[in-house]
Amino acid sequence: METNAKSLEPVQKIDGLVTPSLLLDRGKLERNINRLADHARKLGVVLRPHMKTAKSIDVARQVFPTEPGPITVSTIAEAEYFADHGYRDMTYAVGLSPASARRASELCRRTGVALKLLLDTVEQADALADVRKATGVTPSVFIELDCADHRGGLKPDDPKLIEVADRVVAAGAHLVGVLAHAGESYRLSTPDALVRAAENERSATVRAAEILRARGHACPIVSLGSTPTAHFAENFDGVTELRAGVYMFFDLVQHGVGVCAVDDIAISVLATVIGVKPEKGWVLVDAGWMALSRDRGTASQRVDQGYGLVCDEAGRVLEDVIVSQASQEHGILAIRSGSPKSMPDLRVGARVRILPNHACAMAGQHDFYSVVNGGSPEIDARWERIRGW
Amino acid sequence: METNAKSLEPVQKIDGLVTPSLLLDRGKLERNINRLADHARKLGVVLRPHMKTAKSIDVARQVFPTEPGPITVSTIAEAEYFADHGYRDMTYAVGLSPASARRASELCRRTGVALKLLLDTVEQADALADVRKATGVTPSVFIELDCADHRGGLKPDDPKLIEVADRVVAAGAHLVGVLAHAGESYRLSTPDALVRAAENERSATVRAAEILRARGHACPIVSLGSTPTAHFAENFDGVTELRAGVYMFFDLVQHGVGVCAVDDIAISVLATVIGVKPEKGWVLVDAGWMALSRDRGTASQRVDQGYGLVCDEAGRVLEDVIVSQASQEHGILAIRSGSPKSMPDLRVGARVRILPNHACAMAGQHDFYSVVNGGSPEIDARWERIRGW
């Protein structure tokens, strides 16, 4: 249930928005989308954007203005939603369970969507036979690779790689390729290290594909990606597609990694000042972790941005002002520790924009985007988001 | 948009739930509700539960089975929602902005609800004159107190206390009392310290009321509360009402503080195993921070519960198994560092329940509760939740 809806209807100006509200800057979004699209084009790979960050048909339409393209999803609910909007070529990039494989296959049967699944164990491969029998759909699956001890997946040299591939075929399913996600690249912060991580991801993934091909598996798709490695990759030999999601919006973590400028960050939370404590150097706003998320991704980076970096109402950064503490519906703004600056004069009723540590997490706290353009006081559009599983 | 809805309809058993799903144990909820209600009755104060944790009319009906009672809300959207369900006596316990005061007063005018507001500055008090003029409603306000340097509010001895009270009256608004929140009690962990924190909160709040009465302000309501101090208070002399919210569900942070047993925790996230990495001692599940929240409230406590403590499908704790890492839709289960235990045999497709660090944050990631009863395989009911502002 989205109760902000009724309040927003007559509003055309940012001034009239209920706070906290999620803003999305259309110009920055467009610039970020074009940047990675251009890079993928130059490298000669298909870009399959991950919709887990935006979760919005309206944002997807900015990426694919003429017709639906290939996408990645993080939940079956996203797959159902994008299927309803005409998307036909999707990868569900989370390891399958027997129940999710069945639900995915039912979606394929019902809508004709090609939804590719992910696995890395013989048990998951074996379970596909039952799914096929129950739904009449031949599942298409990737084998998940582990290129740097990040999460799930098999190492290219793990003998289980071939075993799992053979069992996929034995279960009557279709092996479409290998898929890696260089999640560990979020911890890096220099161009050299990012270039190396991208090359490590590429070489591990291509090697796995070669091992499978030597065994007689065609392995047509070689898929990899993470926003940092996608931008820093210099060579994609042997790779067929690239996945990334947060690149559309960017955030302070990506800024800390070195992938974007602060000015590229396309989303923020608009908040209103509800109190001041000059004796402590605090300004209280009506955006707490319910609006900002609990994500503290920059805490382990060189510059800790608290619960977010603060801008004025028009989006200009207030240097060294961060959300230093957050409770459910309260944020405390303060000057970053060690800074010589003093707090700007923010009075009750003033508004600020707060940039996210992690765009996926901040956006996940909201049901829609109010689309803005730079410092313009107008709201361009209201774009929906989905959630749930 | 709640896409899980369509999948849930034919489901009556936990087995058939899409994962991740939020479970609420009805028996534990009832026990927790009764515990604090009994305590408030013994202490002779009104209990005004905070609905920011549950955000659900169905849960409110467990607290008030016969007719709507007094409640606290954390957003105007909550006030609007509960007003639609017949609740008439509410306190919006977040400092007002001119915009939120106006929206609240419009709600009062439209529905006849008594929605009390909160402030701690002369600027906020002065703004009430305009609100009154614009809406024709006389705002009722509390002055927020600061009893331990926690967030907003005035110290009882701060001369601004009287100044703000006088300005509320000068603006033509109604001063209904003083309100404190002992948020710092979340950091405590011994009964003695909690009893002292409760007494500190009580004495500071009562003292502020006395100062205002000496100035001629009636100050009929003396309101305080936080889940830890509410349970540990031994003396409520001079206090008229108690607020608490997380007590209905409890969580691992409250367990770490010493307010509840693990067995009292009424909500959990049901998740499915989607991978195993025996060489690392990892089991991967389909609940990441999108389902669990990013809250790491136990990280600063004696026992760090990671992103949550893991139970088997029926809700029995798997000793020392925690969610050690989380990404958006992945959780990694592992044995707590330092424990001699080894990982139980959890295979792909198996289900677990994950207890929250912070109930408000975990519940906030979901749009409904699947109501269960202990280890029974049946789902009793599906209860809605609201979100937004």
TrEMBL record, chains A, B:
The keyword Coiled coil does not apply. SMART domains: D-ser_dehydrat. Residues 266-373 form the D-serine dehydratase-like domain. Keywords: Lyase. One of its GO terms (molecular function) is D-serine ammonia-lyase activity. PANTHER family: D-SERINE DEHYDRATASE, ZGC:162816-RELATED. This is Alanine racemase.
